[in-house]
Amino acid sequence: MAKQLSFIALAQYTILAIVLAATTVSADDATPIPDTPDGIQAWFDAYVKPISDHESTPKTINVRQDGSGEFKTITDAVKSIPKGNKERVIKVTIEVDKPFITFLGPPEKATLAFGGTAAEYGTVYSATLQVDSDFFVASNLIIQNTAPRPEGTRAGQQAVALTIGGTMAAFYNVKMLGFQDTLCDYKGFHFFKDCYIEGTVDFIFGRGKSIYLQTEIRVLADQDQTIVTAQARETETQDVGFSFVHCSITGKGTGAFLGRAWMPMPRVVFAYTSMVEVINPEGWSNNHHPEREAKVFFGEYKNTGPGAAPAERVKFAKQLTEEEVKPFLSLGFIKGTSWLLPPPKA
User: Fold this and answer.
1) Does the CA dihedral 34-40-46-49 come out positive or negative?
2) In the chain, how many domains are there?
3) Is residue 330 included in any domain, yes or no?
4) What CA–CA distance (Å, rounded) separates 260 from 248?
5) What is the signed CA dihedral for 313, 316, 320, 321, rounded to 10 degrees?
6) Is residue 307 pLDDT above 70, yes or no?
7) How far apart, in whole angstroms, are the C-alpha atoms of residue 299 and residue 331?
8) Is residue 346 part of a domain?
9) Who contacts 42 (Cβ-Cβ below 8 Å, separation ≥6)?
10) 28 three-state secondary structure
11) Among this protein's residues, is 202 annotated catalytic?
C-alpha cells in the first residue's frame, strides 16, 4: 500500500543509474575483516570495488523540493523508472520490479519520516521506507518512524522505519530511528556500514543474511524488556543470520538482551563489538522456549566492555573460537565481492 510521506530537510537526492556487469564470486570473499578498526578501511577498499570496475554507465536524476530538479518528490522520481528496470537509477515503497536504485542524501543527511504502525498497515508494511527490489543502495539518510513509543497496553503499536526485502542491498551512513521493530531485515543479502540503529524491542529483526560493520546499536531504555535482535531463522536449511563486526552497543538502562529465540533457530554473532552496561549479563533469551536452546546459534567473539563479560552468559550462547567465527567475518557471508559497491558520491 502506498503511503503519504513527510520529508524533512530533504535538500537534494541523487539517483545513480548503474548497470552492474555480471561477476563471479571471488576468492577474496574469504578474506576476513581485520581484527582492529584501523585496518578496516584498507580491507574495504581492497575488496569492494567502485562503479568503474563494473564497467557501468552512471545516470543521475536530481530531486529538489524547490523545483530546480527534474522532480520535486522521490515518489515522482521512482514512478518515472520503467518496470523491469536494469539500470541503477530514486517513495517510498520500491516495488520488486524496480531494481538498481540508489538514494543518496547530502553530507548532512536527508530525512524520510512517516508514522505508520502495525495496527494500520501490518508490521512489515508500516515502514517509512520499504524496499522490495534488488541491488538497492542508500547513503547519507535518516529514516525515521515517527509513531509514538509503544506503551505496552495496546496491540499493533510497533512501527518500522526500514523494511529491506530485496537482496544485495547496501547502506552507508544511514540512521534508522524508531522504538519497537525499527529495522525489518526481512530477507536477502545486506551490508550495513557506519550506520546507527536505535530502538527498544526486537529493533533489528527478520530472516535476512547481513553484515553490520562499524555500526552503532543504541538501546533506548524501556519500562519492560529490551531486545536488540529477533533473527527469524526457522529451519536448518535456511542460510540466514546476522553478523555484527566492530560495532558498538550503547544506551541507558540495564537488562537488554542481544537477541531472543523468536523463531526456533536464530543465528546471530557479535564480534569485536564494544558493549556498555545496558546489556543483561546473561546476554541472550530463550524467549520462554527452553526447547530452542539446543538449536539457536548465539555467538560472541572478542567483544569488549562491561556488557560483554562472558562469566554470566547463558549456557546456550557460545564464546566462539577463531575457526568458528571465521565464516561470519568475511564478505563471503553475503557473497559480497560479486555485488557490493562502495558508498555512492554525488
Assistant:
1) positive
2) 1
3) yes
4) 19
5) 120
6) yes
7) 18
8) no
9) 34
10) helix
11) yes
Which of 134, 181, 185, 202 is the catalytic position? 202
User: Domain for residue 133, yes or no?
Assistant: yes
Q: Quick one: which of 181, 235, 217 has its CA closest to 308?
A: 217
The burial class, CB within 10 Å (0-12 / 13-18 / 19+), for 177 is buried
Report the C-alpha gap between 189 and 167 in whole angstroms.
5
Do 75 and 92 form a contact (C-beta atoms < 8 A)?
yes
CATH number at residue 42: 2.160.20.10
Contact 233, 259 (CB under 8 A): no
**Domain residue limits at 310:** 6-20+29-150+157-338
Residue matched to cell numbers 530463550: 286
Q: CB 343: neighbour CB atoms within 10 A?
A: 19
Which DSSP string corresponds to 112-158? EEE---HHHH-TGGG-SEEE-SSS-EEEEEEEEE-SPPP-SSSTT--
Query: β-pairing, 129-131 with 274-275?
Result: unpaired
Domain annotation covers residue 345: no
Amino acid identity of 57?
T
Q: What is the CA radius of gyration of the chain?
A: 19
* Residues with Cβ within 8 Å of residue 36, at least 6 apart in sequence: none
- Distance, in Å, from the CA atom of 257 to the CA atom of 283, rounded to the nearest integer, reads 5
pLDDT single digits (tens) 113-150: 889 999 999 999 999 999 999 999 999 999 999 999 99
Pairing of strands 93-94, 129-131: parallel
Number of Cβ atoms within 10 Å of the Cβ of 37? 11
| Percent of the chain whose pLDDT exceeds 90 | 66
Burial bucket for residue 322 (CB in 10 Å: 0-12, 13-18, 19+): exposed
How do residues 163-178 score in pLDDT, each as one tens digit?
999 999 999 999 999 9
Nearest to 325 by CA among 274, 272, 288: 272
Q: Please state the length of the chain.
A: 346
Are 95 and 25 spatial neighbours (Cβ–Cβ below 8 Å)? no
